User: What shape does this take?
Amino acid sequence: PRHTDARDARSTADARSQRSKEFSPSFRDGTRPISTRTMFAKAMIQTRGTTAAVTLRSTRRTTSAGGRTRAARVVRAMADAGAERRASETARVLERTKEISNSAELDAALALAGDDLVMLAIESDEECYAGESAWSGSDAKMASCKQLSASLARIAREAEDVTFLKLDVVGHEDARALAKELGVHQFPTYQYYKHGELMWEHVGAGAGSHEKIAEGVLYYGNTGAGGMKTTEYIQEVQSAADLEGFLASCAPEQDVAGLVAPISVPCEKQLAVVDVSIEKNAPAGCMHIFPAIISLAKNTAGATRWARLIGDASEDAVALMKSMKVTEVPTFVFYADGKEVDRYSGSDRMALMNKVLQFQRANGVKLPERATRKRMSTAEAKEIARAAREREKAAGRRSGW
Assistant: This one.
């Protein structure tokens, strides 16, 4: 019946609540089951001095003490594994990064680096410059500088042949004086040195900073993600004799991942490309296009050969660049059968790729097609999904399958 009296309504609701308590089962410890539709709980777990915040989500109406125990074990195991991985990564970063605080320590680090690239990060916990804006103190926008510092830490873990230095200017008069001596007034600033000489620097934590810093390490340090060395795909040319040897070489048949067959092209139809750039105060385009060169060299191995001439690296390099009539960088000179057939100046990645494809089409060079994945039957797919669900269930995790 419809209640017309408010007191009767409250009385009925109280009665229902009491009946619910009377018939609701209890755990042995006297606590009652969780009955909310969606429950969020944060467990702070101390693991080896590291506090891991783990968010648990349960959409069940009730849970058991045994289920809670299993879930707790899973959470602890995941937290342990995550904390151990983070601790290992942190130790690796600290091992790879040298903290400097004055001019003498910088000179020492540059001298000990030898021929390796030295990357100096000049940072401040109190100032953050991003493009046209600057923040200081505890402003939330300081996070952009912290994120950039985290990216640098990742690069430091992977780039074995790069020396990483860090100069923190907060609270250190000598460090602040060194930053001023280096002409640094905005933070963060990242400087790249080779043979003790400043090659290039990047200022601020604005849009695209992560990519530019990584491109700088790839370009100057010849090191990419996972420790990849650029010299595996691109030959260094430093003199006329080096160029002659490069043009006389012939790429052997190459197996390229993802293609249905190896790439095999006759020597006279292979394209040889020389990337002519400079090191000191290199235009941003030299670094911007370099990752695309690595990608092209990987994916067209067996059909193209790639070399790089750093035009200001030595007197021989300067003379070779002049003999090639290169007046702007980056410039790409294309050779076939030992003779120049084309060239491109600029940093447009698509334009460079189209030049390579144009030559291949004109010379009848056709690369093998990419392998297509075999389409799985619905029955096979369902069986794999079932196995995945069982695996996640056994591990005490919710499954998206």
